[in-house]
Amino acid sequence: MSIESIFAFISIVFVITIVPGPNTLLILHTSLSARKLNAFFNIIGISLGFIIYAMVSALGLSLLLAQSASAFALLKWLGVGYLLWLGYSHIRESVKVDRVNEISELKVETLRQSFIRGLFTNLLNPKIVMFYLSIFPQFISKNSVITDSLILGIVQALIVSAWFSLVILLASRLAGWLSTSMNKARLNRLSGVVYILFSAKLAMLKL
């Protein structure tokens, strides 16, 4: 794998990363409605998801998913179900916010929960599988599949981590907007609706 290939991969990954999706929405919501540290643990989970997919791709399991309609369908509907659950949980949280006067009275998500939420938001996204089926293999040398996959997986994780860290820092400027429970309830409702829309879009995804 040449330096030129790595830079080409970085360029593609960066463009894909900055396009808003479920991962971006999760980071933005967490950074605005919870502690910044929770959002960074979202990032750790998301980054681990990319490394896992890199290894899955290296071991040829992604090819199995591409050839098996039932395997892909199972992964897709798991993703749809998870996004629906995220949407429901955010809308439910908005109702809780409407019923309290202080944001601090809400139950705060633990760091472990934030990590798991980030991990599964990334893993249960068939579009990531499509990336590792269509784009990722083009940068892998047949003579060093495992090594190249690990390197590129780590590179992608670092790019995503850097971008989402910037998102967290920029989002913190909006913290004052969330000083009222009404605005936080609106954010939860908006996030819930967007997650549900993502799930509908994902349900229509075909291999």
Keywords:
9 helices; 207 residues; mainly alpha; globular
Précis, in short:
The chain is built from nine helices and no strands.
Strand element count: 0
**What is Rg?**
18 Å
Q: What is the terminal-to-terminal distance?
A: 28 Å
Structural class: mainly alpha
Question: What best-fitting shape do the alpha-carbon axes yield?
Answer: globular
Helix content: over 70%
Mean pLDDT: 78
Structure description:
The structure is a single chain. With 207 residues, this protein is mainly α. It has helices at residues 3-18, 22-33, 36-58, 61-67, 69-98, 111-123, 126-134, 145-171, 181-203. It is globular and about 55 Å long. It starts with a helix and ends with a helix. Residues 100-106 have low confidence and may be disordered.
Write the topology of this structure.
Elements: H1 3-18, H2 22-33, H3 36-58, H4 61-67, H5 69-98, H6 111-123, H7 126-134, H8 145-171, H9 181-203
